[in-house]
Design a protein that fits this description.
This protein has 185 residues and is of the alpha+beta class. It has one domain: Alpha-Beta Complex (Phosphatidylethanolamine-binding Protein), CATH 3.90.280. It has a five-stranded antiparallel sheet, covered by helices on one side. The protein has a three-stranded antiparallel sheet with strand order 1-4-7, with no helix packed on it. The protein is globular.
Length: 185
Amino acid sequence: MRIPPVVTSPALAALLAFSAIPACAEMVLTSPDISEGTAMGEEFVFDGFGCTGPNLSPALAWSGAPEGTKSYILTVYDPDAPTGSGFWHWSLFDLPATTSALPRGIGKEATLPEGAMAARNDYSQNGWGGPCPPQGDKPHRYIFTIYAMPQDKLGIDETASGAVVGFFAHAAALGHASLTATYGR
């Protein structure tokens, strides 16, 4: 009786290795206030820089964090701002791992979860800074991203910029999810 040869193809070995990995949930970010690819309402618009909105943050919820998540970072970034470097509208960090949602109006009508902090946005404020693109500019994209972090605290304080918070998020996140809304005037 002849025994067939063992297949040693690298592609087959990789396929077999991946088939042994259990499927893991993917992070998802949702909002009852904003939807992927659609325009944000006037209630979220900044009050300043030529805009006169109520400057409320939208409600957000997330799920599917990877195992080992000890805190979250939330950022809102406008890559279309005419600055050469985009515009940070919101950066929250040290959100406890037990947090899975934020109500509308954080910092104005609701408070951050205990231990969480807001970094300085590009309006030089610690908190939500709503959209206010230049008059007549094409609608800008506002990318809301939640990052699952492997540490309880980043070790920075409220004087940190959105870019510094973004650095920590991109350097160590276990997973992330994004939602992009638009706004133009």
